[in-house]
Amino acid sequence: MGTVRASPGNGPDPDVMVERTRHADGTERITLHSAALRPLRLPVEVALGTDLADLGAIAAGRAGPELPASVHDSGLRWSSAGGSTSVTADPPPTDALASAGLLRWEFDLPPGGTASVELRVQVDGAGPVRAAGRAATSPLAPARATGDHPGVRRFLHTSVEDLHSLLLRDPAYPADTHLAAGVPWRCGMAPADALTAARMTLPLGTRLAAGTLRTLARTQLQGTGPQSGMIPGPRRDAGPHLPPSCTGTEATLLFPTLLAEARRWGLSRQETEELLPTAERCLAWLRTTVADGTYLCDPHPGGPVRCETQAHAHRAALLGADLLDAYGRKGGAELRQWAQQLRTAFREDFWVEDRGGGRPAAARAPDGRRMPQLGAAAAHLLDTGLLGGGDLAPGLLDRVQTEQLARLLGSPALDSGWGVRGLGVKEAGYNPFGHRAGAVRVQETAVAVAGLAAAGYEKEVGSLLRGVLAAAEAFGHRLPEMYAGEQRTDGSAPSPHPAACHPSATAAAAGVLLLTTLAGLRPDAPAGTVTLRPVRSAPLGEIVLTGLWVGGAPFSVRVSRLGLAMVEEAADGLQLRS
């Protein structure tokens, strides 16, 4: 709301109010409200301009040159190599000056009268994806949390609300929803992020996972080339020590993992079978790309051998083999054999001995050198995947190495007090605001908490979990994609990152994973069982999770202050395994 003194001799009091209402769909209404005692003729001028810069450039603060406009329809239009954008006005302007980017009107307002103009931005060639809206049948169960910790109720509620707000659908396949990566910088599909978020939200049901998998199955590369079978994805920054990684590699490995785990959570046999050929092609790409070698390079060929990529590949092979066996498909034995070879080699080739007890290497360079930098990506080594009967797949590290990694994740070098830093404070290139160079990325902290809980390292679980919840409270219980990895001190608050998505799909989904980890849910819907492995130390005191979804039915669980889990609601016939 703004004000104008339009009547001479009226003293200091404004007599025209200018109300501007802007909507997320690209429309803005400007309304003039006159409080004058006489008729007014008011000139209105709107100045418009744009550089049509890429969102990545905007996030980095790089401004481009302002583009020239042309008169178009009832407004102006701007064009660049990447497309064009127009602004139309209703009512049409009395004058449009392209060289100055101006639209002009003259409005006659009677005493107490109003006048409005509506501007609409249209991006030409915009894709067909649209927000899913609040459909009557949401793909996400209405989960709720209560308990001793005062923040868990709002934290889970806000996380689920953010997930709803990020839902997208393709009009050509309106039943299939997936998550936009985040607002404002990544409002569309990011394959690896969409799969990661769908996996972390499996406790809210399998419909989001199914929609995401079907959407990405339609993008899988066909043909006979070296990329055949991949789910395509862009490159992304990997921090100061490694070249950009390929998110398509991660997405391709996540596809069979998500399908296998969604089946355990209750995805129907028919839906699983329909998606199985895509998963088979993902696994075939993995084996073809590795060929006679042991490791998967990223990007391939000639890229470094990244620690987290081997963790993704190992998990995909074991869960993929489990999936193939369940449906009588060939290839499971070969995948397990390769996974065993990878485990044996990784424990030797990727372990860096030092005076502190050693650490996993971040990567091996193309010439074979270990890259010893310590960072949050190592947490993926603890994310081994869910098999049948409530069992977890074996990991790439042995017991001693796992214990050392747990100690490192809970050490001051990585634990900022608000979550796990992307890079340890003692590493060269550390920057508390660096995207993968020291900032806390909520997704990686959630992976660390879940992995540490599964491995039994509850002291570290409690510290990291309480830190993230404290950060969430500082951000109004809505976690951004990332925030600064500065050390927490008494009375301090986490510093926001200027280019973080807020809300973010992976951060919102991480909220679901963080709280459900406390109950240790491990369903096996095909077998009609669920296993509970709660965090015995109960770091948040008692917590009650209701409105979850396991095996196609509502599921509720209570974890007491003594760390004992009790099922309070479940599908008929679902048996609890000890």
From TrEMBL:
SUPFAM superfamilies linked: Six-hairpin glycosidases
Residue ranges annotated for the Putative glycogen debranching enzyme N-terminal domain, each copy included: 9-120
GO biological-process terms attached to the record: carbohydrate metabolic process
Full protein name: Glycogen debranching enzyme
Organism, as annotated: Streptomyces lincolnensis
